[in-house]
Design goal:
single chain, about 325 residues, alpha/beta, Rossmann fold, five-stranded parallel sheet, four-stranded parallel sheet, 13 helices, about 15% strand, globular
Amino acid sequence: MSEATKLQLKQKDFLQLDDFSSEEIKYMLETALEMKTQQKQGIPHPHLSGKVLGMIFEKSSTRTRVSFEVGMLQLGGHALFLSSRDIQIGRGESLSDTAKVLSRYVDGIMIRTFSHDSVEELAKHATVPVINGLTDLQHPTQVMADLLTIIEHKGKLAGLKMCYIGDGNNNMAHSLMEGAVKAGMDISIASPAGYLPNGKITERAIEAGKQTGASVMITNDSVKAIKDADVVVTDVWTSMGQEEESAKRLNDFAGYQVNEELCAHAKEDYIFLHCLPAHRGEEVTAEVIDGPHSVVFDEAENRLHAQKAILKLLLAK
């Protein structure tokens, strides 16, 4: 067993990428690539036979729900969809009680919710692994899929430059920063004033980058950020729960659209990522997201494979 395997198996929960070492992230990605190959070749890998994943959804989802359910099925296990409207958490039962009760029934818990504090509270009281399927602060499972996609298209991570354009104070920007620097990738984030990334997460990313040789740039200048980028990423300007701010955000982000003119400053062979769903004509033009540089549907598929690696390494103990 490699040292990376030992380190990964020591982790109880999957809450944010900053909790993991560069070696652990590399091992999770290697595991995902191996399992993807097996799945494509029709090789069974029932590592979680008899295991059950409870999935709490306080936010709606397409990719998260389907990829976790299919992933558990392909691993030989079962997934339970638990809407907050259908369980007692939606009627005021505490997270601590919910965690303790579910831990008696299931082998792991995935939660997709608003507050990151809720995920941490759940993990604190659960005796089974807890996986962060998304919060307003972090989206680590998506970024593992992003890193997997970059490896497949670029053959490596270390030494590449990632550029994120848009709302820097959202879950994707935060998890991309953590994942990129842990993988040895430089990252630049271009956002308008008032939408810069969380200060503490930025500081942690800068410190982590010192260990891997990766840099972090935060700027208001999209052209400066995207210059010579290998990977260009964006996200919706208005996330779930921010709908009342939509008009203001459309105005504030007007100069931060990812389009062909902007992408001309990236490397000629750049790839484009978007976690989806996308709003064509807002954060990205159709020419880019539907163009030859876009790998967004490879990225969407890789949610399945990256999450299967996480499930295996957390639950198959």
